[in-house]
# Entry
Amino acid sequence: MAEKKRILSGMRPTGPLHLGNFHGALANWINMQEQYECFFFIADWHAITSSYEDTGEIKGYITQMMIDWLSAGLSPEKNTLFVQSLVKEHAELFLLLSMITPVPWLERNPTYKDQIVQLSNKDLSTFGFLGYPVLQAADIIIYKANGVPVGVDQVPHVEITREIARRFNFLYGHVFPEPESILTQTPKILGLDRRKMSKSYNNAIYLSDSPEDISAKVSQMITDPNRARKADPGDPEICNVFEFHKLYSPQDVIDRVNTDCRVAKIGCVECKKIMAQGLIASLEPIREKRRYYESQPDLVADMIVSGSNKARNVAQKTMEEVRAAMKI
Ligand code: TRP
Ligand code: SF4
# Structure
């Protein structure tokens, strides 16, 4: 059998996972776990860069994130699931890479420039925030990953990672492969208010939401904005509820909504109720596994430790090569 390609990806533990995170990343990871040798990790140091004044919740979010992953079907046997800060080698490689990374590469990073504008309520003028992609490069190349499944917003970071790897290899000899982005199809589903689904907009449906929460949230969803009354025909093409139907309802329901909405034969209240049922049913297996893992905190803690030990073994080998190449 040909050797499986190695991929790596990470998420910052900034809160419980919502459906946007699930379809934008986690569902894709779950699909990749057979085909690739996968390293998935919780990037807790990266979570500090934009919230260094308020670090108190990160630890709790790490456990919650691992439970979200396991409940959704990410396997701790098939993959290496770990926590960044439990593998200190990432910090050592970050330091060494920072010696060879030109500051202008970081200053012209589009994600960096975007975030400074978007998160104007936060002080992002720190060395750590500027160096975010250097830490991310260390995360990736310390495992010699070939591919990095990410959304479009992260592609510039993978690009910088390639440049840093190339520069290291040029200066000290070949140690690192240049990883490629594996683009995740991002879902069309939006938040309840039709903005991007996000914890900070308070418009998200979480994997951990109860059926009651889901029903209540779905009933608040904004539908086709041009459909004012039930007697008005609607347009599913521009309705966020219909996007949810496409993901969570059986085909006959999707077809019926698609025709009946256009001739005002179905109202939005009913349509949402049907969708909520499908969504609640689709998420039930995840909720069931969550109940199991939440009742076994020691098991989850052990999985975090053993996954991180597995990762560290690989990271330590790479660091030996790095120090040898650099003659330090
Ligand atoms: N920056 C990524 C994000 O915010 C998280 C991350 C950190 C990451 N290190 C990584 C993703 C390495 C992929 C590979 O989503
Ligand atoms: Fe959207 Fe359904 Fe209302 Fe049509 S009936 S506008 S698909 S919620």
